[in-house]
């Protein structure tokens, strides 16, 4: 099938279409229009032909995978953590709003302005309010730090090195948040 392309100074594709789009359009024959249109950045124009640049493709795939892993890290941090207060297991939210609420509550408790603060938690999937004191907040601060750090370490120290060292598309695709 015939398509028209434009390239940059290093002959990488920057545009492709089924009709010419200017005097600098180059006419080429391809087997699969979809493959070219779906990932222009993985093709270069050499000696009158489009050639799939697997290094470029692998590199762009790694960038996409890194974004996916980073999003998973954020998701798992935001999903919250479990902590036992007065012998009862609770689920604490830890999205951005909850993180700001923890910070504000910790400041109020540490300064002695309030002796305790009501906090929304989940127990067995049901929301309830419990009282958080300065002592409990000190415990929670450590638990929050460990929760956040554990997920960041997984992303930065375990998954990213795997991604960096991946040599094939299959290796890159096999890396997920649940790989480890």
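^ Assign residues to that structure.
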């Amino acid at each position: 099938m015939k398509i028209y392309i434009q390239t940059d100074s290093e002959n990488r594709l920057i545009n492709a279409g089924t009709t010419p789009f200017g005097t600098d359009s180059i006419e080429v024959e391809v087997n699969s229009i979809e493959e070219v249109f779906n990932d222009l950045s993985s093709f270069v124009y050499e000696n009158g032909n489009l050639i799939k640049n697997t290094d470029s493709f692998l590199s762009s795939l790694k960038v996409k995978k890194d974004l996916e892993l980073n999003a998973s890290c954020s998701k798992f941090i935001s999903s919250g953590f479990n902590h036992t207060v007065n012998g009862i297991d609770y689920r604490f939210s830890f999205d951005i709003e909850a993180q700001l609420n923890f910070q504000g509550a910790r400041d109020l408790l540490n300064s002695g302005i309030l002796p305790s603060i009501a906090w929304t938690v989940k127990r067995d999937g049901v929301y309830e309010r419990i009282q958080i004191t300065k002592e409990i907040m000190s415990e929670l601060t450590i638990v929050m730090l460990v929760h956040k750090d554990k997920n960041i370490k997984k992303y930065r120290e375990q998954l990213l090195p795997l991604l960096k060292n991946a040599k094939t598309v299959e290796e890159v695709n096999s890396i997920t948040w649940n790989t480890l």
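Strands lie at 2-7, 13-17, 26-29, 43-46, 49-52, 81-85, 88-92, 116-123, 126-133.
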